[in-house]
Amino acid sequence: MGYTTYARGVIAIHPPIPWHRIKDSPFLPDGGNDELDVKFVLSQEERDTSEGVLTVIEATGVEQRYEDDPRNYNIVVHLQRLIDAFPDHEFLGRFECEGEEAGDLWRVEIEGRKAMKVKPRIVWPDGSETRPR
Q1: Which of 36, 88, 96, 111 is most buried, by CB atoms within 10 Å?
Q2: What are the residues facing 46 on neighbouring strands?
Q3: What letter would DSSP give residue 82?
Q4: What is the pTM of this model?
C-alpha cells in the first residue's frame, strides 16, 4: 500500500515527436519501465502511399502512467527527464494533482523547460481574518 496521488491533464508536445525518436523510449505506454510516473500520449494516423497504407505514430503529449492507484511520487523528476531528452520540442500545459488526504492539492507546471511542483496559496476574503466577538 502507498499514498495515492492523481495527476489529471495532458502536457502537449509541440511539434509532436516522430516514432523513430521514441521507439526505444522508456516513456512509451508499454515501454516496460513501471517505475516511471509519466508516459507519452501517442497519435496514430494511416496515410495512403503509392506502396500501400503507411501508419504514422507520434508522441503528441505526456500524461500520468497509471489510471488505477497512481502513486506519482516522482512525477516532477520523471517529467523533467523526459523534457531534457527532447530539447528541440516544447512542452505546454500542466497536471492538476490531488492526493488522497483532504487539502492535498498541487500542480505540476512547466516554466520554460523546467518542470516544477506548485502549491496553492489560501487567501482569506478581505475583512474575514478577524471578526469581532
Answers
A1: 36
A2: 55
A3: H
A4: 0.88
